[in-house]
Amino acid sequence: MSDLGPARGPEPMAKPAADEVPQPAGAAGPTAPTQADLPSQDGPLAFFAGARRRNPLMSLILQRLALSVALLFAVSLMIFGGVEALPGDFATTYLGQSATPQAVANIRKELGLDQPAPTRYFQWLGGALQGDFGTSWASRNSVSEQIGKRLGNSLFLAFFAAAISIPLAVGLGMLAVQFRDRFPDKIINVVSLAAISLPEFFVGYLLILFFAVNMGVATFPATVYDTMTIGQRLSAIALPTATLVLVVLAHMMRMTRAAILNVMSSAYVETAELKGLSGLRIIARHAAPNAVAPVINVIALNLAYLVVGVVVVEVVFVYPGMGQYMVDAVTVRDMPVVQACGLIFAAFYILLNMFADILAIVANPRLRHPR
Amino acid sequence: MAKNGNPANQDNNCPARANKGNRGMTDYTKYLTTQVSLGRMNRREFMGRAAAFGITLAVAGTMFETAARAQEPKRGGHLKLGLEGASATDSKDPAKNLSQFMFVTSRTWGDMLVETEPLTGQPIPALAESWEPSADAATWNFKIRKGVTFHDGKELTVDDVVKTLQRHTDEKSESGALGVMKSIKEIKADGDHLILVLTEGNADLPLLLTDYHLVIQPNGGFDDPDAMIGTGPYKVTSFEAGVRATFERNQDDWRTDRGYVDSVELIAMNDTTARIAALSSGQLHYINRVDPKTVDLLKRAPNVDILSTSGRGHYVFIMHCNTAPFDNNDVRLALKYAMDRETMLQKILGGYGKVGNDFPINETYALFSDDIEQRVYDPDKAAFHYKKSGHSGSILLRTSDVAFPGAVDAAVLYQESCKKAGINIEVKREPGDGYWANVWNAQPFSTSYWGGRATQDQMYSTAYLSNADWNDTRFFRPDFDKLLLEARSELDDAKRKEMYRTMAMMVRDEGGLILPMFNDFVNACTKQVKGYVHDIGNDMSNGYVATRVWLDS
Questions:
Q1: How far is B109 from chain A, CA to nearest CA, in Å?
Q2: pLDDT tens-digit readout, A188-206
């Protein structure tokens, strides 16, 4: 953001909704000059309005952050309501068929489940506001501690999947544009569409069958634990990472291709061609920067999926991530764990979408300097 | 696992693989060879006992050699097991162990007072060296073993035992063993003996102490119930709920006939396909819960052995005897005759099981009467009783995938076999979530399963006594209750067996239980694993699988 000049207009742009990112098009190149501006001298306005004037991007971020907090509240309330609405409470579901009335009563009393729901929610909220997410009802371990480990595992896997899939998707998308409607484009399309069409567990099973069972070259199960070296960890996550890359690749690749193709039809690209620039150079240097906003949004969605939506892959590969942890907790209505996991997932979604919006604005001067 | 499966299993195979061919042997000779395999009997004793049983010396000699050769356990190696049933919510406190994963975990690091003999189910000494009941079987005196140390170096005392049992019985207890422990009135120490006073005489008390929750912990686990410090053959080196547990051999183990591998690793694997893939690729040595539908595929893997152990667990269709239309015994009989048990066994269990006879006991239990006629599928009789009952209209059967594997398919199969008898069953599929709280033991006709119990008494007391918490067939029969209590304190086995037979007939002919099949426990291992004991006590060699097997190089 350091390269941003202060905005000129009296009304900074309204916050764009996460899903209506404008399509960049037309003649405005990314190198449009940034105009310097005089600081506004409007007198003692409210701090926030002043901030909006001086730095619309910063004010947008602040607005978004404030909204996120409200959203997280709403999410926690919905999770609580949702778990309450499920049949059975923690005591009966945890004990299952082996529940005796006395054991159920003992557990309810110890955990305070005999109190009314609003009381329990506010008790939990009180703790959470002070940073105390409590202890898991089932295992009686600290939620934060357990989540720390699981979240670390999830992010580790997501990071490597993203680090491979994003450059690969963008690169393949550009290649597809360069060779559009020719053989390499078709191959890229067919393969990536086939990968996205197969359910992720099936992709996982195929990889296990070939690389673990038949060829015996891959590590399986992909369980990771504390005493592993980094090399062992990387070897363990090879197959799940490959699965995730195959699953998310096509979406990002196709969006890159479509967005760049959209820009390729514009006049300045024609100019570049007439100047005699090479195809790939036009794509990478002139077309791609203008196509970046929709691509960033798709990438953000896929990143969110990599963190919060991979429970099936975790189960298939026996990988101890957040998804499985939350599913286990929901199964027995372990409220503190469900709440903490739900909030973390929601926070990831909100933050990633916010970053996507901000990057889209930064990448587009017309959004950066709205009139 | 949502339900406290305490599935018992049994197999007459001798643990020694070399004896697998000897299917014709009687139970007794199998027992003898097992004793040899387990290193509990020398050649002289074996020959003497076998001769007394009428086996010629030559045959007995061969049998001893085979069993003994199979014995010779090798020490060393790292054993990896992939187990279904773990969850991130698993508690390390043995009192709260519910899942199959935790069952094996606590059996690996801990000891109970009493164990069961794998093939006969008789109580045998563990941390209790010997025991003596009073004449009325209401006061028991257990001699606690000396020279046993916990993993933290402290010596086991009677006080630890007393405290452990107290922790499982006090009012605030959340122990899974609360049900079996509630008949104990007083727990006290007397020198190095433990004295238990019961509310009423119970000849089966030692068997109740084999419950897997009752792991003896230092100071009874009052200081730190989650410490996983015990007296077992392996020490816990790491544990992450729902992920993995690792163990190293306890060098100071008080027993030498167990704990052959150097280290053990239990991996939580809830996905069936993942378990099978990991086993057939040789990354694991043992997996549990092989799906009967895929067992034939797994059999084709060259390096895999299927371990099928028949047992006491059973799948049931339960009717409330006090709710219309099931309050009419003719309706109940009609529904029992309309059950096609053989087809059910083949289709749902793939043949890995035994047909049931509408009472929850089979030949693996002591004092079982094998002369009770097998009920078979008979649409004519079903139609006769159904007509006689005067009931018309459809009957609602509630089921869910969590009731037992294949429960929904089983309900539809049952619907078909009932149709031939003119009975119209309406199958309603309920959500698995909350099934145990809202449908089972609440709705008048549903599907469910039961694990086995240590004794006939315990099975009947759990679910067929009028005031049992889990009387899921609403079977209210004062004469049955009276007989059950009488049998409990009856010391004459012949009389007791006759009493159990009468009770079985009551449940079979008048109860609300339709029991189409007893399920086998189907596990699998690689051919490298030796010495697997088919224990009649419970699944996975009664949870002792990691402590009993060894690895062939």
A1: 19
A2: 989 988 888 899 899 999 9
In three-state secondary structure terms, B406 is: coil
Say if B272 is an interface residue toward chain A (CB within 8 Å): no
Task: Classify residue A285: in a domain, yes or no.
Answer: yes
Neighbours of B112 (CB within 10 A): 24
H or E segment at B216?
A: none
Residue B243: closest CA among chain A residues belongs to which residue?
Answer: A320
Contacts of A88 in chain B (CB under 8 A): 433-434, 436-438
As given in the structure block, the two tokens for residue A38 are 């005089």
Q: B532 pairs with which residues across the strands? A: none
Looking at the structure of chain A, the number of domains it has is: 1
Q: What is the pLDDT of residue A363?
A: 78
Chain A nearest-CA distance from B472, in A, is 11
- pTM: predicted TM-score of the whole model, two decimal places: 0.80
Instruction: Give domain status of residue A6, yes or no.
Output: no
The answer to whether the Cβ–Cβ distance between A216 and B281 falls below 8 Å is yes
Phi-psi label, residue A304: left if phi above 0, alpha if psi -120 to 50, beta otherwise: alpha
Q: Is residue A73 in some structural domain?
A: no
A359 by DSSP, 3-state: which? helix
In terms of Cα–Cα distance, which of B540, B549, B535, B539 is closest to B78? B549
Does A83 map to a domain? no
The CATH code of the domain that includes A211 is 1.10.3720.10
- Quote the tokens at residue B381: 């009789």
pLDDT given for residue A193 in this prediction: 87
- By DSSP bridging, strand B263-268 and strand B425-429 are unpaired
Q: Which residues of A touch B448 (CB under 8 A)?
A: 97
**Domain limits at A243?**
143-368
